Amino acid sequence: MTRIIYIQHDGREDPVDLPVGYTLMQGAVLNDIPGIAAECGGAAACGTCRVQLAPDWVTHVPAAEEIELSILDDADTSWRLSCQITVMAEMDGMVVHLPENQT
Amino acid sequence: MAMSAAEKTELAPIPGHVPLERVYDFDYIYDARLLENPHERMKSLHKEAPPLFYSPRYGGHWVVTGKEELRQVACDPELFTSVTRGIPAMAEQPVLIPLTFDPPRHTQYRAPLNAKFTAKGVAPLEGAVRAMAAGLIDAVAAQGYCEFMNDVAEPLPPTLFFNIAGMPTDRLKEFRQLAEDATAAPDPCVRMTSIKKIAAILKETVDARMAEPRDDLISEMVTKDFGGQRLTPDEILNYAVLLFLGGLETVVNALCFTARYLALHPALQAELRADPTRIPLVMEEMLRLHGIAMAVRRATRDTELDGVAIQKDDMFMLMVPAVNYDPVAFENAESMCPGRKEALATFNMGPHRCIGANLARLEMRVFFEEWLKRIPEFRLDQARPPKFFGGLNLAVRSLNLVWG
Ligand code: HEM
């Protein structure tokens, strides 16, 4: 299990333990963590599962591919689609921030 | 209407692999209850049929009304392809970029245009949408009534498209008429001819932008790299026609169903007039309660879905407007709960999830901000109740409103 800490816009922390291979989006949705709509179900087609990786973790996550970049509004590479990030063992303890709203 | 559904379409034999308890006779075009009240009919499907059922209409096809079942089909394009001849089967499938392609080709077509349609991408259009909406509403405000569909809703999307695509405004009036014929003309030949004429007008702009790109959507399609290559003129035209048609009837009907809901709920009108900041979340629920477009898929091999055997080439109608009432996925699915946490299905799921969703949301919000500001309490005209269409879009045929 890999521990991921989701932090809500209002500061609330939700630590969850996720099996390797899940996406950050699935981890949030399956654990009823609010703040992720994931309207398209994980196809990088809607941009409603955006998260911001804590600065220390940005380089631990493989860079976004073209389809993900096309959906992200931000040049800031710490913003990602959580459906495109697959949990790996080395992400244990990773902190991700959720935006105030997704649309 | 004199003809009943049973007279219009035949029942296909039920294939051997379909369990009888999954069979439910539903005619997605002519079902009498659907034509009476489309979204009430969507609710009833959950009470009368399983989340994946088989209807013997139009050659026989599966119907998906469960959100989890929708996710499984829409998010697996390898198993459930968008390359289909439709329901009922046409002689051949018209090619529509990017709708009738599967990944990876679909991704190459779609990714380069996504940025134009993100929330930030469409935000600069807000002023133009507001001005268009205000103009259309002011034209009917003093008369105390309107046929909302034709008078107000219908002209908005084509006018906006002209702006986005960078089309010369002297063709707008002609284009609007063609757009109306393309969606509302009862004769399919008239609809086809109108779409061809729309394409001919669009072609002029495509040619002009190929010669000299500017800052608009068509220029974007001319200059961008799509999977390592430029689009051909035919591809640009095809794509542009879909972007136009995709945002036409859908938005018009989202506006109409919402106006009807508000007409039936004067307390909600009053609440939103008093506090317009509540409009965005209420609009999100309007879009959920009034899903419009369906989607079609075909199984590429034998598989299983919801514990049922599926055969290669089985057809699937993704009944998106019904999915929004799935009691398993939505708490109090039939109630209007602004700010609910479950995501709507209106724009479908998977790689084809509507590219225009942010634009549709912008149009809905801004239009009703202006409408509620300019029109006092309004209600349905009792003498002329609304009429509806079924089919691939749940649609309003006419919506007469009165006020004052
Ligand atoms: C409330 C309004 C709208 C609704 C209900 C709606 C619904 C949908 C749905 C359900 C799909 C998925 C089709 C499938 O999976 O096969 C879709 C795709 C699409 N929509 Fe919309 N739509 C709306 C507004 C718009 C607007 C404003 C545009 C214009 C930009 C647009 C353009 C498209 C296009 C081009 C596709 C194909 C996307 C692809 O294949 O990747 N739609 N829409």
Describe the protein.
Chain B: Keywords: Heme, Iron, Metal-binding, Monooxygenase, Oxidoreductase. The complex is a heterodimer of chains A (103) and B (404). Chain A has 103 residues and is of the alpha+beta class. Chain A contains two helices and five strands; from the N terminus they run E-E-H-E-H-E-E. Chain A has helices at residues 24-30, 66-71, and strands spanning 2-7, 13-18, 50-53, 79-81, 94-97. In chain A, strands 2-1-5-3-4 form a five-stranded mixed sheet. In chain A, a hairpin with a 5-residue loop joins strand 1 (2-7) and strand 2. By secondary structure, chain B is α+β, with helices and mostly antiparallel strands. Chain B has a single domain (5-403), classed as Cytochrome P450 (Cytochrome p450, Orthogonal Bundle). Helices cover 47% and strands 10% of the residues of chain B. Chain B has 18 helices and twelve strands. Chain B has helices spanning 5-8, 32-36, 38-48, 67-74, 105-114, 119-122, 126-141, 148-153, 156-165, 172-184, 188-211, 217-223, 233-246, 249-264, 266-274, 279-289, 320-323, 357-374; strands at residues 52-55, 61-64, 80-81, 145-147, 295-299, 303-305, 308-310, 315-318, 378-380, 387-389, 395-398, 400-403. In chain B, strand 10 and strand 11 (395-398) form a beta hairpin. The longest helix of chain B is centred in the middle third of the chain and has 24 residues, at 188-211. The two termini of chain B are 33 Å apart. Chain A binds chain B through residues 34, 37-48, 66-67, 70-73, 103, and chain B through 71, 74-75, 107, 110-115, 118-121, 284, 341, 343-344, 347-353, 355, 357-358, 361.
Order of helices and strands of chain A: EEHEHEE
Largest sheet of chain B: 5 strands, mixed
Shape-level CATH architecture of chain A = Roll
How many individual β-strands of chain A? 5
Q: Return the CATH architecture of chain B.
A: Orthogonal Bundle
Tell me, briefly, the overall form of chain A.
globular
Distance between the termini of chain A: 31 Å
Termini gap of chain B? 33 Å
Query: Helical amount among residues of chain B, as a percent range?
Result: 40-55%
CATH fold-level topology of chain B: Cytochrome p450
What is the CATH third-level topology name of chain A? Ubiquitin-like (UB roll)
The overall number of domains of chain A is 1
- Which parts of chain B are unreliable, with pLDDT below 50 for 5 consecutive residues or more? 1-6
What is the average per-residue confidence, as pLDDT of chain B, rounded to a whole number?
94
Keywords (chain B): Heme, Iron, Metal-binding, Monooxygenase, Oxidoreductase
Family (chain B): Belongs to the cytochrome P450 family.
Organism (chain B): Acidocella aquatica
Protein name (chain B): Cytochrome P450
